[in-house]
Specification:
By secondary structure, the protein is an alpha+beta fold. The protein has one domain. It contains four helices and seven strands. Strands 1, 2, 3, 4, 5, 6 and 7 form a seven-stranded antiparallel sheet that branches. It is globular and about 40 Å long. This is SMI1/KNR4 family protein.
């Protein structure tokens, strides 16, 4: 798929941490364990949750990365995710948060990569899987 940058709005190209305080119409799915072979992870994954306020806070203390490879190398990849959607400036976005701290946000045209690294920000600990 070719992305025509001439038709893109500045908002689509520059989704940033500061924008997350303005998100609305938030929907958050329950956490999902992607692979049951990890003994003992099922209970912890099932108990991992976000509400609207904690989601906004988690997004705001996170850092943006240029590509998935960078975030994949920095963060543990735990087979437990939370998915959902929200609107920002009348644009619908989807997200998937990995319990290791990385997450992706996308719309129909663009994908953005973020992460909350507890080595750089101890506040991230309260949002990550125990």
């Amino acid at each position: 798929m070719i992305i025509d940058l001439t038709s893109a709005t500045e908002q689509n190209l520059n989704l940033s941490i500061k924008d997350f305080s303005k998100i609305e119409r938030i929907y958050i799915d329950n956490s999902v364990l992607l692979n049951k072979q990890y003994f003992g992870l099922e209970k912890a994954c099932k108990g991992w949750k976000f509400n609207e306020e904690s989601l906004k806070e988690f997004f705001k203390i996170s850092q943006k990365y240029e590509d998935w490879q960078t975030s994949y190398r920095i963060f543990d990849q735990i087979p437990c995710v939370i998915r959902g959607r929200f609107s920002l400036d009348n644009i619908d976005y989807f997200f998937e948060i990995n319990a290791g701290g990385s997450f992706e946000i996308w719309n129909n045209n663009y994908k953005f990569y973020f992460g909350c690294d507890n080595k750089q920000n101890k506040k991230c600990d309260i949002f990550l899987l125990d």
